[in-house]
Amino acid sequence: MAIQNRHVMDLKRKVAVITGSSSGIGLRLCELLLGRGAVVFGFSRRKTRIDHPSFRWLKTDVSRREDVDRAFDEVFGEHGRVDLLVNNAGFGVFGEVETIDPESWKSLLDTNLTAAFLCVRRVVPGMKAARSGTIANVASIAGKQGFKSGSAYCASKFGLNGFSEALREELREFGIRVCSVNPGSTGTEFFERAGIEPKKLMKTEDVATLILSMIEIPDDILPDQIVFRPL
After folding, report:
1. What per-residue confidence (pLDDT) applies to 110?
2. What residues are annotated to the active site?
């Protein structure tokens, strides 16, 4: 009740970068942020199909440093800052450990973990100078508890949670909030590609709305880790 009576973060004209923006949680979060008046940049390999004057899609393979640097150069060239970064890009590789191809392992870690580092390192200097900013890293329940045939995926998401925890302590003195988001099974393309059939799925829109709610809470509150799953 107390939070409802307090000022929530005003996202109008805030500059946001969302990775993995072409589908699922990333796409819906872009749409929600635009509805709040934010200026949104979507980073993804596939085209993000949003037609809005405050949205720009930048074709970006976030696992490649040169792509990430080029994209952020464009963002900074236009607006000079990033107020919100959501590291959402990711995919899964599943199978018994001896069957996982080492190149697939590397590609997974590059996209699910290293990409977050590449993006964070570009936004932190400006956020430190402004003494404000929010970084949300979308991990997974699989980053809290391992499961059979999930060694590669779990390693990447456990790593992302560890990165978030250390980053949170590194940046909080500068007024920068870092949150790791750990959703359970969500109705995105992920499970279709993975060949996994979970018993229950959360709606993509509901998960994106929960992430937005975390972003909008008063900026003197640090959300830390959020875990949510189907009932």
Report:
1. 98
2. 153
Q: Quick one: pLDDT band at residue 219, thresholds 50, 70, 90?
A: confident
| C-alpha to C-alpha distance for 231 and 229, rounded to whole angstroms | 6
pTM of the model: 0.90
What tens digit of pLDDT does each residue of 120-148 get? 999 999 999 999 999 999 999 888 988 89
Distance (Å, whole) CA 148 – CA 223: 30
| Residue 79, number of CB atoms within 10 A of its CB | 14
Neighbours of 9 (CB within 10 A): 18
Tokens 């996982």 sit on residue: 100
CATH for 11-228 (3.40.50.720, 3.30.565.10, 2.40.400.10, 3.40.50.1380):
3.40.50.720
